[in-house]
Amino acid sequence: MNPVTVERSWPRWALAAGLFVVTLLLFWRAVGHEFVNYDDPDYVTANPHVQAGLSAAGVRWALQSGEASNWHPLTWISHQIDASLFGKRAAGHHATSVVIHALNAVLAFLALRQLTGALWTSALFAALFAWHPLRVESVAWVAERKDVLSGFFWFATLWAYGIYAARRQRGERGARTRWPYAIALLACALGLIAKPMLVTLPCVLLLLDFWPLRRWVPAANPAGLPRESVSRLVVEKLPFFALAIASSVVTYHVQKDGGAVSVALSVPLRLENALVAVVSYLGKFIWPVDLAVLYPHPGEWPGRVVIWSGIIVVSATVLAVGLHRRRPWLTVGWLWFLGTLVPVIGLVQVGLQSMADRYTYLPMLGVQIALLWTVREWAATPGARRAWGAAAVALLGAAALRTHDQIGVWKNSFTLFDHAIAVTSRNYLAHDNRGLWLFNAGRVDEAMADYRRSLAINPDYLNAHNNLGYAFAQTGRPAEAIPEYRAALKSNPAHLEVRNNLANALSDLGQLPEAMEHYEFVLARRPDHVNALNGSAVALAMQNRLPEARTRLERSLQLAPDNVSALNNLGNVCAMLGQREDAIRHYRRAAALNPAEAHALVLAGSLLNELQRFAEAVEVLQTALQRAPAQPEAHAQLGLACARLGRRDDAVRAWQTALQLKPDHPNVRAWLAALPAK
Questions:
Q1: Can you tell me the distance from the alpha carbon of 64 to that of 80, in angstroms, rounded to the nearest whole number?
Q2: What CATH superfamily is the domain 610-678?
Q3: Which of 331, 534, 621, 671 is least surrounded by Cβ atoms within 10 Å, i.e. has the fewest?
């Protein structure tokens, strides 16, 4: 290699390596965090297609699935790969997102360096992008893998396109330009199937043609670069536009079919929120405090807020466009910001939020371009460069410290939603999700109080009704659960999880015909719904339709082999069918998967006694009693096994304990009476 080339290239790669390492270290704190209960179950922990790991069947599902109201097969495949590698260990999933984000810092630097030729400004651009607190949501939230993954291909597209444009400007043609163009197009396609946020990328490429590439300029070209017609540049982008249009159409239909597109807000209200959100995003960029996982949509903003937001947005747009000749980076940066926000600004309302930190992952790059290249212009003298350099170091240091603190907010669902409640108002989603964490932690009364607070803010909130109903059902009050489930279904009659929960409650109350109606509703739309297969099998067994029940449970376990509930239920059905060996095997598997499971071992021990395998029964029942000592049936069956083995004293002790726990046990007194005297 030419020594001059080495001298010129080593700072670039040293900066790239530094960006990667520092970004990795800054965000590594997230690797120790848990999954959260907001979207992570849909994307990873409770998704059987993801938990099954990477396979040909999994890839086919990813390509066809509109689950989570999105079509992003590459994102699903990335989660499947992680599931294959790490299972449900959150650390591995977090580490993947952190590594991709660190790579994005490198690609952001290389892309801007290629496009602008500015080494240090590009490095500052990449560092500010990677270390800003607004990035935390996209990186620390496993379900937002689509942000960092699509971002990777966004920057790859820009880098390859910059190489392509530079070669065309040098007059090169043929394979020298075809290959980088093809790579840019491929990266764009991959980015779109990771997240459709990249639909605005063709427009950004046209902006970059204006500046910094200057492939078309409205005035004289002082650099003497070859100019190309606007029409030719547009034609050049047609394949990119075709990909973007196809992605937009698919995404809209998938989100609409999935019930994610809201029609509750009128077009004027959505436009008002868009104006307010633009200004709010700028505010969060400048002063990134009180960041929350969800900013509830107020429904209608105060008129003065809308007016001032409109004035700011219009004024900034007029100023940026008016300076397109003298400071084209302002025009490009501002239009980049506004344009890339269009898919997520709420003009088509998706979800409950008025804005979201994750939506800034790519749009805020435009603001950075406008800001940093203006500073670059101001820092024209060595003294000014030193002053601005010191300011940049201080800015990045402050951003990194704030980012480190914000990562801590994402430790678990409780810290995340407790923080959201503290920094936002009337956040019914945060109350509901904090309640869900409390319920899973065994703090049922606190959880139900949070659900009720959520419903006090939004009486029609489906999730809070569903979670409150589930809390009633799990505490043995299915009759109180049913009204909550029915209230939830008023908001969305086709909601499959609520239907399944309602069916479970009806089944618990013995209302089997209606329960089966709801199970069949769910399974007609999602034949692979594990819980509906499991619950409907129980209802079928209660109607003595045992072969059908067994078939559904076996299908459920094909989808989720480690489902302890389904294993126990299959054991019960096999026992009812007289297939005792199979039943024992399923009970033992359930107990092996769940160290707290004791009842399955009691059932297995009882069946072993029936098979006269008394020594095995003693071993299994003793294990059950180690896990849960206060089980009268376990002591009763243990006594029976000991009696059959001639261990009279052990049998008497076990039966006496059983009677202490359950004085009216139907069999123990008879067994004691029949026991031969010493």
A1: 15
A2: Tetratricopeptide repeat domain (1.25.40.10)
A3: 671
